[in-house]
């Protein structure tokens, strides 16, 4: 086989495996999107104290944050495939526990399902890192963005599953949905069995301490930019349906806005990688910062349906540009032997921020109001702007 033919075969195999990771990401995210669609409704129906209706989702985000620790251990010792299989099993057990809680009418059991479901979602966040490791340096930004674009399929599949399966097993509303959602990680496991995934990273003679990795300017820029992107997005997205309700809009209107937001979050994944490859990660992140600032401006202009819709579309686009760019920067902030520790620390920071905004969004909206809530995110955006405009640190 000639060198050119061998290179072509290798490139074809790489792209095939990135596509498999795209579908795995879509399947795992479908379970999460489906849960987000109905979780609060089920929590409200099961909880005696109605103020606890969103507790299952809050617990799921905390478990997502905590997943970075066991994920890092498994990925470092055994490689990507066992780690992703563990995550899929967590999602599977979470869906079954949710289903059992609905069947028993138990809020406690339903809340317990959030723990394995959150662990599964947290481990699934590493699909983008696996894509970066599989890809050549030139293709890496596109591989990361393509895998993240799996959320587009999830945004369509998750709500549709809820819509068409919620009444399958009367009188238990949503019981059939959770049984269908349990199939998503099983299909994911089948795809993982045929994918070629990175093995366990090489063991360094002396392991670099995690705090030394975290202290690097390149790591801080990547992790803090990703945390700002996710934190700002989660804070404003979570509060939007509440503000729309107070403005007199119905559930269907807010659902339309959130759906448009979800598509704008993930659809750019089909071209964000090309933008990063052409212009670099930092200019794309700066464009994301400006889009998030535009979201705030639109939210302050008025409270008509179009204001909410366009603002959240801008928010989704801004999140995609910032988060994809930050993930690309992270790949340059560590060596091959350090990658799992760096990725674990990154996701702990990012999803710790998401958990805080999940708990704080409703409180800030209630105490400070919609306009002040939007203004509060501007300092974080200015901070991200400052981080990415600093001179780049040397790559690890």
Provide a descriptive summary of the structure in words:
Helix content is 81%, strand content 0%. With 396 residues, it is mainly alpha-helical.
Poorly predicted segments: 1-8
**Structure summary, number of beta strands:** 0
Outline: globular
Q: Let me know the largest β-sheet.
A: none
Question: CA-to-CA gap between the ends?
Answer: 35 Å
Name the CATH class of the largest domain. Mainly Alpha
CATH architecture of the largest domain: Up-down Bundle
Strand-residue proportion: under 5%
The CATH topology assignment of the largest domain is Growth Hormone, Chain: A
SSE ordering: HHHHHHHHHHHHHHHHHHHH
Total count of domains: 2
What would the average pLDDT be, to the nearest integer? 83
Q: Pairing-aware structural class of the strands and helices? A: mainly alpha
CATH H-level name of the largest domain... which superfamily?
Answer: MFS general substrate transporter like domains
Question: C-alpha Rg, in Å?
Answer: 21 Å
Transmembrane segments: 20-46, 58-76, 83-101, 107-127, 139-158, 178-197, 218-237, 249-271, 283-302, 308-333, 345-364
Domain Major facilitator superfamily (MFS) profile: 210-396
GO molecular function, one term: transmembrane transporter activity
InterPro entries: MFS (IPR011701), MFS_dom (IPR020846), MFS_trans_sf (IPR036259)
Task: Provide key terms for this protein.
2 domains; 396 residues; mainly alpha; Growth Hormone, Chain: A; disordered N terminus; 20 helices
């Amino acid at each position: 086989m000639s060198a050119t033919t061998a290179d072509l075969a290798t490139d074809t195999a790489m792209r095939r495996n990135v596509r498999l990771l795209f579908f795995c990401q879509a399947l795992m995210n479908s379970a999460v999107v489906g849960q987000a669609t109905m979780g609060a409704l089920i929590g409200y129906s099961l909880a005696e104290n109605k103020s606890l209706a969103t507790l299952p989702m809050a617990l799921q985000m905390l478990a997502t944050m905590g997943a970075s620790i066991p994920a890092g251990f498994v990925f470092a010792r055994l490689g990507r495939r066992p780690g992703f299989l563990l995550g899929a099993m967590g999602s599977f057990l979470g869906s079954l526990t949710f289903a059992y809680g609905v069947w028993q009418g138990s809020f406690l059991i339903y809340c317990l399902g959030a723990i394995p479901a959150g662990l599964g979602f947290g481990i699934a966040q590493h699909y983008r890192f696996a894509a970066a490791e599989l890809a050549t340096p030139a293709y890496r930004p596109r591989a990361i963005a393509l895998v993240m674009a799996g959320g587009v399929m999830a945004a369509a599949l998750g709500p549709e599953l809820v819509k068409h399966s919620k009444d399958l097993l009367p009188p238990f509303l949503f019981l059939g949905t959770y049984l269908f959602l349990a199939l998503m990680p099983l299909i994911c496991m089948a795809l993982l069995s045929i994918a070629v995934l990175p093995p366990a990273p090489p063991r360094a003679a002396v392991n670099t301490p995690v705090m030394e990795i975290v202290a690097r300017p390149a790591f801080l820029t990547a992790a803090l930019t990703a945390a700002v992107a996710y934190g700002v997005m989660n804070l404003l997205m979570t509060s939007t349906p509440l503000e729309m309700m107070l403005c007199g809009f119905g559930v269907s209107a807010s659902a339309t806005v959130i759906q448009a937001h979800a598509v704008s979050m993930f659809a750019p994944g089909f071209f964000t990688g090309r933008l990063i490859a052409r212009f670099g990660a930092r200019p794309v992140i700066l464009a994301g910062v400006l889009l998030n600032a535009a979201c705030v401006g639109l939210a302050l202009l008025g409270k008509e349906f179009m204001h909410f819709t366009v603002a959240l579309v801008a928010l989704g686009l801004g999140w995609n540009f910032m988060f994809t760019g930050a993930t690309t920067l992270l790949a340059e902030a560590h060596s091959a032997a350090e990658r799992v520790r760096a990725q674990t620390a990154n996701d702990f920071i990012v999803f710790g921020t998401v958990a805080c905004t999940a708990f704080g969004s409703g409180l800030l909206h209630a105490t400070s109001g919609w306009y002040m809530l939007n203004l509060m995110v501007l300092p974080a955006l200015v901070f991200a702007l400052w981080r990415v405009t600093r001179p780049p640190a040397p790559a690890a």
